[in-house]
Amino acid sequence: MSSPTPDETLQERVSRLRSEGRLVDRFGRVATDLRISLIDKCNLRCTYCMPAEGLPWLPKEQLLTDDEIVRLARIAVEKLGIEEIRFTGGEPLLRPGLVSILDQVTSLSPRPQTALTTNGLGMARIAPALKDAGLDRVNISLDTLAPERFVALTRRDRLHDVLDGIAAAQQAGLTPVKINTVLMRGVNDDEAPALLRWCLAHGYELRFIEQMPLDGGHIWDRHQMITAQEILAELQQHFDLTPDPAHRGAAPAETWLVDGGPIRVGVIGSVTRPFCGDCDRTRLTADGQIRNCLFATEESDLRAALRGGASDDELADRWRTAMIGKRAGHGIDDPSFLQPARPMSAIGG
Q1: Which residues pair with residue 178 across a beta bridge?
Q2: What is the second-level CATH architecture of the domain 31-347?
């Protein structure tokens, strides 16, 4: 994030950054991290994300094409100062053009850092191609090591495929391989120590994520959520955790060295320990909508402008306008909080 000049007021800072073409909001936060959702479909049916029958998927004609995604990524990098691009879904490995998109995005100048958030199904097959296309690292979701629990949580008997995918990502050099875990009360909340021991044994970095109100069924219950404090308290009964000396910056995870390091464990307390004040993210949905916050209730349509013949400069200006109205925080604890109409699978992580 660009540092304020001496004696510069917030209003002056925002004005200066806008004049420099940056994606700045009215609180002076600058977006340098772009999350691109490539598809809303998923091949798992995780209970905390969507119903067993799935959700109404976006029609193909509403999805951005590969060329449209690459064009918007180029505008973000060349005109708006984006430095990192993370590809998400739904399940991004289901996007047929993923490797080609990656190859073109990593050829941009300046080259953005690239990452992928996935459930790991199919990673065993495609990991080498992703590495060759320039992907830097991956986050893979894994909520349990118990096969029967995996079936109950995801409604699919695919744990062995996920584990194979994780190993393949590491072998391909998509490191550090980070494991994303959501703990649910009475479901898998007893597995935190076992999951961390497994990650330590294999050289993976574990990230526990508080369950967020982004489920397709809108059944999230704050009182049933396992909090960051509960997770840490459980881990500290089994491991020596020391605060990570590395600067956190705008990273969503608070991290600790496990038993002296070098392996770290992270906790993303999006609900109880929000990090909105340091947020540096902007999001592009699979159908071309800009979201300035994961919990935003409004979106800005770039697809219509893009298909209507807008120039790169016009699209960049629309993007800047979408960002300036970003709220100070997600407001989950506010009585007026409204869960976004779109679930996580349709927004992108």
Answers
A1: 139, 205
A2: Alpha-Beta Barrel (3.20)
* Burial (Cβ within 10 Å: 0-12, 13-18, ≥19) of residue 37: buried
Tens-digit pLDDT profile for residues 171-206: 999 999 999 999 988 889 999 999 999 999 999 999
Residues 239, 240, 245, 247: is their CA dihedral positive or negative? positive
Contact 181, 161 (CB under 8 A): no
Closest CA to 168 of 196, 126, 136: 126
Contact 83, 32 (CB under 8 A): yes
CB under 8 A, 24+ apart: contacts of 185-188: 185/224, 185/225, 185/226, 187/149, 187/152, 187/153, 188/143, 188/144, 188/146, 188/149, 188/153
The domain segmentation of the chain, as residue ranges, is 31-347
Q: How far apart are CA 326 and CA 283, in angstroms?
A: 12
Check residue 270 and report its DSSP letter: T
How many angstroms from the chain centroid is the CA of residue 227? Answer: 19
Rg over alpha carbons for the chain, rounded to the nearest Å, is 20
What is the distance between the alpha carbons of residues 78 and 167, in angstroms, rounded to a whole number?
Answer: 35
| Confidence category of residue 346, pLDDT binned at 50, 70, 90 | low
pTM value? 0.90
Residue with tokens 């506010």: 334
Closest by Cα among 78, 105, 84 to 32: 84
> Closest by alpha carbon to 295, among 253, 262, 334?
334
Is the CB of residue 40 less than 8 Å from the CB of residue 345?
yes
Q: Which residues face 179 on adjacent strands?
A: 140, 206
How deeply is 226 buried, as exposed, middle or buried, from its count of CB atoms within 10 A (0-12, 13-18, 19+)? buried
